[in-house]
């Protein structure tokens, strides 16, 4: 149903592709996540997480990237590939900032981006979701300037694989509680918000 067109990026948890939906002809983003299976099938935590993402889809929040489909295929007896199909957005905030001509984004643009960013984050927190990995690469910006948060709520899916392979992730935006692996809640996301807000001004 989905035909990969180009590779968008490679992360610690797999590859993200730009793909074409063969039924509608529209572009989507495919994210492949490998999860360890048990004798009972997919781990309950994975099932719960995907169910949560599907539930959020029904709200159709303007500042949250839409999960459109979920596909699961068995690779081995111990591993299943879960493919998450999201709406496709051409650029992330990092690319958007890099494209901005000197001396940087106008103040009104920064205010608008932050307003949308915080609306999306407030929606996640209101639904008991802590993002835990906010960074410019996980904030998408459409050609019309609409902000959409991505890669939220996937940490528990990823945790199955993290125990198996060395994982290199971006640490610059993470709160001390996350780095120290201590208990934490929604305030850790606000630490990341402050880092990203400063980067919009400083462009670094």
UniProtKB/TrEMBL annotation:
It is found in: Cytoplasm. The keyword ATP-binding applies. It is an enzyme of class 2 (transferase). Residues 2-204 form the Protein kinase domain. GO terms for molecular function: ATP binding; cyclin binding; cyclin-dependent protein serine/threonine kinase activity. GO terms for cellular component: cyclin-dependent protein kinase holoenzyme complex; cytoplasm; nucleus. It comes from the Eukaryota. Pfam families: Pkinase (PF00069). One of its GO terms (biological process) is regulation of gene expression. The keyword Cytoplasm applies. Its EC number is 2.7.11.22. ATP binds at residue 31. SMART domains: S_TKc (SM00220). Keywords: ATP-binding, Cell cycle, Cell division, Cytoplasm, Kinase, Nucleotide-binding, Phosphoprotein, Serine/threonine-protein kinase, Transferase. It catalyses: L-seryl-[protein] + ATP = O-phospho-L-seryl-[protein] + ADP + H(+); L-threonyl-[protein] + ATP = O-phospho-L-threonyl-[protein] + ADP + H(+). Belongs to the protein kinase superfamily. CMGC Ser/Thr protein kinase family. CDC2/CDKX subfamily. This is Cyclin-dependent kinase 4.
């Amino acid at each position: 149903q989905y035909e990969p067109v180009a590779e968008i990026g490679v992360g610690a948890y797999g590859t993200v592709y730009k793909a074409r939906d063969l039924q509608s002809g529209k572009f989507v983003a495919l994210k492949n996540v490998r999860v360890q299976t048990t004798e009972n099938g997919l781990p309950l935590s994975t099932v719960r997480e995907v169910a949560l993402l599907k539930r959020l889809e029904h709200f159709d929040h303007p500042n949250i990237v839409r999960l459109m489909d979920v596909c699961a295929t068995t690779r081995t007896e111990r591993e299943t590939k879960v493919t998450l199909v999201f709406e496709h957005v051409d650029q992330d905030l990092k690319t958007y900032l890099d494209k901005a001509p000197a001396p940087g984004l106008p103040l009104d643009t920064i205010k608008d981006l932050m307003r949308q960013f915080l609306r999306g984050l407030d929606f996640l927190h209101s639904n008991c979701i802590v993002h835990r990995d906010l960074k410019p690469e996980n904030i998408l910006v459409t050609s019309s300037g609409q902000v959409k948060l991505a890669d939220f709520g996937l940490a528990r899916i990823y945790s199955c694989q993290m125990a198996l392979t060395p994982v290199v992730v971006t640490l610059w935006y993470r709160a001390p509680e996350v780095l120290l692996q201590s208990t934490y809640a929604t305030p850790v996301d606000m630490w990341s918000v402050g880092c990203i807000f400063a980067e919009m001004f400083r462009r670094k």
